[in-house]
Amino acid sequence: MSENKILSDLEIAQNAAIRPIEEIAERAGINVDALELYGRFKAKIDPAKLRLPDAKRAGKIVLVSAMSPTPAGEGKSTTTVGLADSLARAGHRVMIALREPSLGPILGMKGGATGGGHSQVLPMDEINLHFTGDFHAITSANNALMALVDNHIFQGNELNIDPRRMTFKRVLDMNDRSLREVIIGLGGPAQGVPRQDGFDITVASEIMAVFCLATDLDDLRERLGRITFGYSYDRQPVTVADLGVQGALTMLLKDAIKPNLVQTIAGTPALVHGGPFANIAHGCNSLIATRTAQQLADIVVTEAGFGADLGAEKYMDIKSRIADVAPSAVVVVATIRALKMQGGIPKELLKEPNVEALAAGVENLKRHVHNVEKFGVTPVVAINKFASDTTEELEWLLAWCAQEGVQAAVADVWGRGGGGDGGDELAAKVAAVVAAAAPSDFRHLYPLSLSVEDKIRTIVQEIYGADGVEFSVPALRRLADIRKNGWGGLPVCMAKTQYSFTDDASQLGAPKGFTVHVRELIPKTGAGFIVALTGAVMTMPGLPKEPAAMRMDVDEHGHPVGLF
User: Fold this and answer.
1) 314 counts as catalytic
2) Does 405 carry a binding-site annotation?
């Protein structure tokens, strides 16, 4: 191998010295009888069997978010891992809590969810593929529900379910546009009752959201029972509890609900568990994993999907209402490359120095940073360094952050992570913010007493910078149903493109003077929020013209190749 060759993320991971998972568990203070081994390097933790000190620890949360994502890459997971490794290197007791990756986007065009370079969680190939089978269990529970629903209709329909008013779909952990709209039950009376149906991707399933917001097994069962999967002929909501199958669904999820323990290249313990999309769901790892990490560590570094307008807002307004997991600091990841793209530079020219484009694109970062402050949390900008970044560009961005009154540090964790010093300056700034934070500083963006339409209006005006919101006729009808059924007190989960503050993916930077268009509202009564579908956002993605799967294979030893 040439000394000058730049190794891929997969090659770096395969060359790393990975430790037995029992050693990582012992380091984290996890007793051996709480571990359920999945081979040598992965394990599940049974929270009910954890033996913790009498003085209960409640670790502080550091939430990692980002500017609006671009094809240039931001490196949120890489920064999360590198920051945690640097905090551990500084002597803090640290644990990471991340989402599990979805297989469909991995085979499509998105990178994995395990970080990159020398700031990765291991074993990255197994995590990015089938891992411990959690997503398969969620897929099975979702599709078992729909099989039971359609069987109920076929067997006489005692609940008077209207097949035309189903709000729940089957799911698959794959990008497959061909399954967005399907007809089922064809082939005669013995094959079921024909009706229009469709598939969502597994990470958009309400069962995924329920899985990630449940506080324990009993809460999981109760939330599953509250799921509304459709309406009766007299337009009354029909729930899983009405069908009486919440116990069976809980049984299918009883092992998956236990958090997964893995490690970083540097040996920092990491819980990787659950994974709802942030553009069509709430975008955070499981609450059980976050709370377990809080019990084991003094600082928990976690992540919310896509930009701060999506994952971070949902973390604050949805996840942090359920349990005491409000962040003490929020890291907003930015890159010189992505900022220049937000400033109008095409991807092929991003390696060329261009402070003017950087100055134009920084408006996107500015909106995200000051949005974080609206929650009473101090932001810290992490400038994720790329090899093409010039000293002039980095110094300009640091000076801009100082002028805005925002703390910032350059993080070279891709190349100097894994226990190196690439994230030390960022870690020091974050630790200082965490130490100074008070729980009373945190606040939600809106009270639950607001109407659903006013909650949506608050988000689009305060976070996106829109002038207002426009509801389609179907969305207005659904608002009336929401009020009638007593669901108006639920928080809102905005389903919006991740690439723009607007609902138009092509509008980069920090646009003004626009309107957000809500085309549909979907009550997720089990998860406990109302999804507002905007623009052209899809709950079942498609594959690109040249999927990443075209580059993937296994070698003669059965090891993956071409996986990032």
Assistant:
1) no
2) no
